[in-house]
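Before relying on records like the one below, remember that each one covers exactly one chain. Contacts with other chains, cofactors or solvent are not represented anywhere in the record.
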Amino acid sequence: MPKDTSIKKILVVGAGPIVIGQGCEFDYSGTQACKALREEGYEVVLVNSNPATIMTDPQFAERTYIEPITPEVIEKIIIKEKPDALLPTLGGQTALNVSMDLFHAGTLDKLGVKMIGANADAIDKGENRQRFKDAMIKIGLDLPISGVAHSMEEAKIIADEIGSMPLVIRPAFTLGGTGGGIAYNKEEFEIIVHRGLDLSPTTEVLVEECLLGWKEYEMEVMRDHADNCVVICSIENLDPMGVHTGDSITVAPAQTLSDREYQIMRDASFAVIREIGVETGGSNIQFSVDPNTGRCIVIEMNPRVSRSSALASKATGFPIAKIAAKLAVGYTLDELPNDITRETPASFEPTIDYVVTKVPRFTFEKFPTADPVLTTSMKAVGEAMSIGRTFKESLQKSLRSLETGRFGFGFDGKDPEASREQVERKLHVPNAERIFWLKVAFEQGWTIEEIFDATQIDPWFLENMRIIVEEGKDLSNLDLRTAKKLGFSDVQIAHARGITQDEVRAVRKEKGIIPTYRLVDTCAAEFEAATPYYYSTYGDENEARETDKKKIVILGGGPNRIGQGIEFDYCCVHASFALHELGYESVMVNSNPETVSTDYDTSDKLYFEPLTLEDVLNICDQEKPDGVIVQFGGQTPLNLAADLERHGVPIIGTSPKSIELAEDRKFFSALLDKIGLKQAEAGTAVSEDEAVAIAERISYPVLVRPSFVLGGRGMMIVYNDDELRHYIRNAADVAPDRPILVDRFLENATEIDVDCISDGETSIVGAIMEHIEQAGIHSGDSACVIPAFSLSDKIKTEILVGAKSLAKELEVRGLMNIQFAIKDDELYVIEVNPRASRTVPFVSKSIGVPLAKLAAKIMVGEKLVDLGFTEEILPPCFCVKEAVFPWGRFPGIDIVLGPEMKSTGEVMGADSNLGMAYAKSQMSAFNPLPKEGNVFFSVNDRDKNRAIPVARELAELGFKIHATGGTYKCFKDQSINVERLYKLAEHKRPNVIDMMKNGDIHFIINTPSGHEAREDEVKIRSGAVQHKISHCTNLAAAEASVKAIRSLLENELTVTPLQEHHGIS
């Protein structure tokens, strides 16, 4: 059936900021949906609060609203745009939940908007735990013994009926297992049920028998309204049940199912999608199998495109989101062509003749007090995927794609020495490093049976790992071709042979042992692939295609992690589009399955490969590029730049030498002196006494950090000798080759970020961003505003002149980011990075100019004058970027911000009124500000004077002020009407936590007393997150919040598309 022509305009709801459990997979699916619908002639209206994704660039929709994804705001957009339909299934759980809220409120009916992709009843049936259970019983499928509870009493009754612990608790309508967990005793049961009921938007949890140790599988299924059903991909979790699928190593296609078992699961998947009623689009259905009896049960289904859909799309080459969008407007699978073969229809089930392995990426080092045990609530921040001919090759490639300094399944000199007891502990409890402990166990002589008993990982996987270990024991003598077929990297072979990886590479090339590139073709090579999408292996046939066009290789950012997110993927995608426009062949190299850069139609060629020196050099040998871009993928490609250049690879844009010089403190100080810019005094220490001497010379407070770190890792602000000595003894690994950097800390300075673009002749500042939080809070975690709202004209001029002088001296060709601090109307330079930064997408959306696209064109010789960008642009409104944090995933951790980055994503609020723009950013960042109620203050002595006007203004706005001890006395002395509250340590009730639990506190302003934050402070701050109470942990944010609350009370919230802000028709 052809497309629905009664629909003209479609509202697509995006997924919002990147959070744990809902990453950039949904930006990939949303971007595909926008492209697919526009291809069919529909007018697309997009709402998404995330400025970092390519999806919110104005060219992907007719109208792009970067606004909060709340029912109230979307209703305003519907009233303004009058869409015919709403597509809720491609924006993750966020889009699904808000669409259901609009449906239940009657908004969609009232405004004449129909839901496409999945109707409200199908969504509810798939997400509502009781209805899903009833549906499965009706079609005769087995389920875990379970019950649905809406209160603690109901949950306890269900637990008694099931009979024994452990029990699994799964909240309804949440993402990535949020709030769920496994309870091993009654106390844990009550904690998890309470949290789950609180976090479920429908106050509903499923309590079910625990299937710990069972095998877990996923089926990615599609169905159209003519009832054609196809399985796109089967996925098997390496980790057994009990570990969230997002935290598990997963393998596609499923490796341990017999043909009969697979067919049973396939039939069950079709029965589920039909019964739930998903008529148009993709669904993810999870199964569990008892390894002892073969009993197969259905765990749950997502009646939408899921996190695994991106993985399945990249694994097979079948664009699930694109096809789902077209099915939503009336097409059937047999009417849509397969983009890769161009000969087969989409109803042709993909078949693959290789193995795909996805490995999750964790950042527990950022949260030292968080529980690192992996359970049913997701904790991974990103993932890497690799493709190989065998599981062994695929596993080793995926482990070296992780950007954790490992180069495969051990054998890289980084395996720990451990006793049998230590190994046993690491195997029994699922953790981020368990895969490497398996290797240690095999080396220590553990049998497959013993490891299976400890981990419940299927013996088939363990046998493959055992073979890698067995062959690896004699890696120094192993035949090179055999080693490469097993997935061993040059680094591992070099380590075993005691030589360099360059020498291994030379020997390999001399013997003709070079990788061949195979195509991802959806059909096991039955038809020719029209899209060049490659993976490497060591076989006989090379399917890489030669062309005579000029080629540029773009190196991506690898897996998402804190400090290196989707912003860099955004830059890489723009580079690809720009080069394509100029007639170059763009060649993308990346290992991240979640992103738009690894879509088969973003670049002319895609290599799904690890971003290591060996793999990138192999691709350069194959492609012989005219240039390679290393400045857009964050730290990952920059780490390779010098070595690539040494091997004769032509790096274009700003030279690696300039990038390194900006990191060289001596050179950089001399450069700043030359152009007349100031820097805070600093020194470099290789011992405790040296550090103390420097601190005394430059005066406290000082910022201390190890050299060579990413995302502010290990940084701290210290206020005296004792704190400094404690830091060096406990937090830092100091050595002559690893000095500690000691900088004078500019206390209460205003921090400024500047993104600049230069072609060598002309330099333009994209924007001056003023941070809300003071210097000392990592720039990635601070809210910031364009245009700067409190700077004098003198300082703005100094910034523009200084930025352009730095661009000239560092010979920048492309993008550069500079961080300044302003103290007492004096300008200081904090640091300079002559590469794309994480703020580039935000600046681009704010000024309406795609900076990354222009920078890519400059790298191949274009000039800003010819590109039409020759002067600074002042945005037509205030744009506020706010960071989003994963606090909810790590209950109980302290949420205070500091020099080390902890945010996973960002949102943007835009409005002609600064207070309203900030208020919108808080709504989008899950910290909406109250318009009335009780405010609780507890601030340290350094902040008390600054807190007085904040409290006074809140009281004027009608809020009741509450405070503890010293803060109470300070406010009372200033004649502010304030109620006294008791600290936890005072043991007097009711205390602040009691009021929080009772819902009597609506806003919390709590600043830390020192580094070793007192236990009761941490409880207050983490309690604010748990009870969803709006909060600030520094006075700068509190001041901005008061402005925002005033704006909310005095003005109506309005919505404006990006196109209207920038006059784009």
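The chain has a mean pLDDT of 93.
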